[in-house]
Amino acid sequence: MIKGDNAFVPTAALRVAVRNGVDVAALLVTEQGRVRGDADIVFDGAPAHPSGAVRLSAGEDGTMWLETGLTSVEAEITRVLVVASTAEGALRDVRGLSVEVFGPDGATVVGYEVTDAGGETAMVLAELYRRSGGWKFRAVGQGYVDGLTGLAVDHGVDVDEDPQEVLERIPTPAPLATSPAPVEAPAQGLRLTRDQILDMTPEQIRALALAQKQARAEASDQVPLTVSSPPVPKPDPSVWTCGPVFKPRTVTGRDNDVITVKDLPHGPVMVELTLKGDGYTGLWPLDESNAKGRYLVSTTEKDFRGRVIASVPEHGRLRLRLEASGSWQVRILPLSEARRLSKDRLESWGPDVLLHTGGTADVTFHYRGDSNFIGHLYRLAGHTDPTTLPKPGRSVVSEIGARRETLPLPEGPLLVYLSAADGPWDARLKDMQPHSSGQDADGPAKLPEPRGALGWLRRARR
């Protein structure tokens, strides 16, 4: 991609590599383009967002990694900015400055190499942003000569709010011949407000940043500065990877048909069937000789709907035989689109694929159909092959007719595959225990409070 280009990416757990040897941060911003507070800045001193949606880690050869679980990004956040900065020198001196996005299967989704960096010391390299119900990647390449301070102010960061740092009186910057009147320095012990900073011109911001840098240099000669990093959280099991990642595909039609979907990645996928009609409905995978495999759907329910699991062959062409009476829609979805089990009641109809990422818990099903209700577990922990699913355990439920059933679940991540459920049902988790890695059973880990924004900006003031 070149600067300004954009493309859709899978709404899944993505890995973003930033190269080479630069300081990296992520800013989670709202529709107004502003962070809600210091917690929305992910950097080396606060390497994980409280939501668990974005995590920062260091790799080999100067590569920094941002783990982004897009399904976990809070609704209020509309963009995730990928930011690079230098402690010394300008970004034009960085060789091979680039961003590359990888899907859960390890394949490159999109990439951007910065070729026009100049004297900037900080830059928004790229962004992941919401669009049309999904997510897109944009190659941004917007640099800031005034470094992280200018970038931070541009995105609503209060650059002077660290409660652990008591500032001396900031000298009033001398006015430039061509600049507006300088901003008055705050009284002894007071700080500039965010509104005051936002009213400043770029020249005044640079002058203020220089004054702050000089003040801290003088203070560092007398009081040594010690920084202790919070403990790095353990891996988040909610950032699970299983099966290929791709943009969902949709096929529509009527009555009996053979459905062919090409150019899919190899591995397990979800097939979502929605039918308006009655009579018998059957769905089977077809092999290379057009022989039917084991049925995926076999029902006489009216207006059937449900999700089942199929496997895409190595050649990337999924073929299905459908017998139905009425209009239908088939969607091919990645497993990352599985519905998540939680404390809240999940209502659905028909077979389905459910995801559990917490610790041990009980799941209560209320099935209101009059035929088979069958479910299996696929334990995903430690399973690294995206082209297969782990072997399922014994069926956790196999009943006929309406009933309530409470089942114990082991620690996640795992899939609960309801392979047969001709009727409405609901499910919810209860008696959830913390994950053994420190996770809550219902979501991401409770992370330590990040340091204030000045911890991130400190390198710009040395």
Characterise the protein shown here.
The protein is mainly beta. The protein folds into two domains: 6-233, sav2460 like domains (Lipoxygenase-1); 249-430, no CATH class. It is 8% helix and 37% strand. It has four helices and 28 strands. The protein is elongated.
Q: What's the CATH C level of the largest domain?
A: Mainly Beta
Radius of gyration of CA atoms, rounded to a whole number: 27 Å
Question: Any idea of the CATH topology of the largest domain?
Answer: Lipoxygenase-1
CATH architecture classification of the largest domain: Sandwich
Task: Output the CATH homologous superfamily of the largest domain.
Answer: sav2460 like domains
Q: Which strand-content bin applies to the residues?
A: 35-45%
List keywords for this structure.
462 residues, 2 domains, mainly beta, 6-stranded antiparallel beta sheet, 4 helices, 5-stranded antiparallel beta sheet, Lipoxygenase-1
Structure in a nutshell:
8% of the residues lie in helices and 37% in strands. The protein is built from 4 helices and 28 strands. A hairpin with a 5-residue loop joins β8 (98-102) and β9 (108-113).
